Amino acid sequence: MTSTDLRSVFALIDGRLLGADGGAWPSLAVSVGRRTALLSPEESRKALYGPRSNEALRAAIWRQAVTEAQREPGGGDGAGQLFVVWLALPGLYRNLYKILRRLRVERADLESEAVLALLTALDVVDPDNPDPGGCLIREGVNGMWAYANRIRREVPVVDIAAFAEARNATAPQEEQPWPADGWELHLTPPPRRDGLAATLRFAESRTRREGERLGALAHREGLPDLMFRARRHEEADLIGTLVLRPVGASR
Q: pLDDT tens digits for 40-68?
């Protein structure tokens, strides 16, 4: 089975082995008894998972592929390891889809965990084991389930800093959309050295609509506390002049 999702890790491996970018992948020399056969990647997979699979041939393919992968130099291109992972992929799909149906897990993460588990097991698996391929596939499956169960126990938490930043972010003054029938608020303090020194209070308009507009302006400017009182007391000192006019009106 081959993944058709080009965003998946398995699909990338398939493309590397079978796609045009990978070129012609070397054939695998497999010895069964006194006979040696050169198998292409497709022929190797068919021999492993086909309906008429030969147990001796299966064991020989896994033994040769694992041996060549383990003999690769540390600074090599890892072609042998990639080939072993590619051979093991069909054995992972059944559990991959089972996990995806049951749990909310990202497929790419699940596939990455499977490949990591396969490569880790490849370092220690014995090529002469009666079923080295089965050992590798089991480790890949266990890696997927372990990751899925770990994610299931995690509790998603909101990024408080990002949430607060997005909530408090305001567009620059020149970028804020102003409705055609909006209002502008102008506060003119008296000429005092220390500026405004008393509590500001917005007087309510004669009409309810103007009052609502005034309140909306105060909230938008971050001055909701200034609406606590409705009128300036007659005996209070004048602290400034408030002018409310339509946007664009002559000043």
A: 999 999 999 988 778 889 999 999 999 99
Measured between alpha carbons, how far is 113 from 121 in angstroms, rounded to an integer? 12
Give me the long-range contacts of 74-79 (CB less than 8 A, separation at least 24). none
Q: CA triplet 214, 224, 183: central angle to 5 degrees?
A: 25
Helix (H, G, I), strand (E, B) or coil at 243: strand
Residues forming beta bridges with residue 93, ordered by sequence position: none
- Helix H or strand E encompassing 101: helix 93-102
**What is the pTM (predicted TM-score) of this model?**
0.58
Q: What b/e sequence results for 172-188 when a residue is b if at least 16 CB atoms lie within 10 Å of its CB, and e otherwise?
A: eeeeeeeeeeebebeee
Helix H or strand E encompassing 184: strand 183-188
The 10 Å CB-count burial string (b at 16+, else e) for 62-94 is bbbbbebbbeeeeeeeeebbbbbbbbbbebbee
List Cβ neighbours of 189 (8 Å cut-off, separation of 6 or more). 195, 196, 239, 240
> Left, alpha or beta for 248 (phi > 0: left; psi -120 to 50: alpha)?
left
Hey, which residues does 173 pair with through a beta bridge? Answer: none
What CA–CA distance (Å, rounded) separates 92 from 1?
A: 10
